[in-house]
Amino acid sequence: MTAVKKNEATGALYDFEDIKLTDKMFMKFAERMYDLAGVDLPLTPKNHALIRNRIVKLLRRHSLKTYEEYWSKLESGGNEMVSEFISALTTNMTSFYRESNHFDFLKSVLPELHRKFGADLRMWCAAASTGQEPYTIAMTACEAQPEMPSAKPRLLATDIDLQVLKKASTGTYEEREMQGLPPVQRTKYFEKIKADGDEYWRAKDQIHNMIRFAPFNLMNPKYEFQHKFHVIFCRNVLIYFDEPTTKRVIDNLVSCLAPGGYLVLGHSESGNVKHPGLKPMSRAVYQKL
Ligand SMILES: C[S@@+](CC[C@H](N)C(=O)[O-])C[C@H]1O[C@@H](n2cnc3c(N)ncnc32)[C@H](O)[C@@H]1O
């Protein structure tokens, strides 16, 4: 079934499914995304469908009829258009306790990091998406707290996509987004709230206050932070980058880690990591020498 839509601006009826995305326009969008976010989208049927399906939603939103019109608007529009484009083309899939062995590992090393580095434990979640990952890190730090009562764990959660970051900062989730969170943690660290007649789960202050949310593009040429981090999670984002970009990002991440600190990547991302300053510890976990 095809969807016939009304153009809000002109009142004309037209069929979005029939709007053709030429290979030339595909390449323009793909190159723009690569330049902005490092996301590598070679011309394949899957990527063609991805760009077509996601940008067609923006055509609707802006009452435009062709990808060419959208391209002109993107080129002449300001930061908001660019930010919306990035949001449309990023993949934000995430869940609580995803690749859960990483949180067992974190719980086991936090007391050791506390002994080594003192009270201020600084962690960074560098592709935080809608927040399930940083809240899982915060819950893990709370679970480790009895073994390090004087520690003050702090977490910076960043993402290039401002829309997911905004959601993450609210810490509010629908039932379907709570997937992966065991019942005990659910009631210990989240509370039920009602808004507009619907029920949501909201992160309690104990974990919410541990996290600071901020935009950050991993394509930044240099990562400049006041202090080194003791743990960095950068999971399931390198898969979208090509080899030279991945290498550059890893070099930058390593430069932000304190010696003895840990870098945690996604399970499927560890194949590309050959850094002389990193010692493999367990699956996709590295320690800075
Ligand atoms: C698939 S999600 C992974 C979320 C989470 N780390 C996890 O493992 O569940 C990938 C995230 O990386 C973000 N991302 C993509 N390119 C980025 C870049 N250049 N800088 C920062 N974040 C980026 C996306 O916006 C998205 O939220």
TrEMBL record:
Q: Keyword Methyltransferase: yes or no?
A: yes
Question: Reaction catalysed by this chain?
Answer: L-glutamyl-[protein] + S-adenosyl-L-methionine = [protein]-L-glutamate 5-O-methyl ester + S-adenosyl-L-homocysteine
- Pfam families under this entry? CheR, CheR_N
Q: Which class of enzymes does this protein belong to?
A: transferase
Q: Where is the CheR-type methyltransferase domain?
A: 14-270
What EC number(s) does the entry state?
A: 2.1.1.80
> What are the UniProt keywords, alphabetically?
Methyltransferase, S-adenosyl-L-methionine, Transferase
Example of a GO MF term: protein-glutamate O-methyltransferase activity
Q: Name one GO biological process term.
A: methylation
This chain belongs to the protein called protein-glutamate O-methyltransferase
Species name for this entry? Bdellovibrio bacteriovorus (strain ATCC 15356 / DSM 50701 / NCIMB 9529 / HD100)
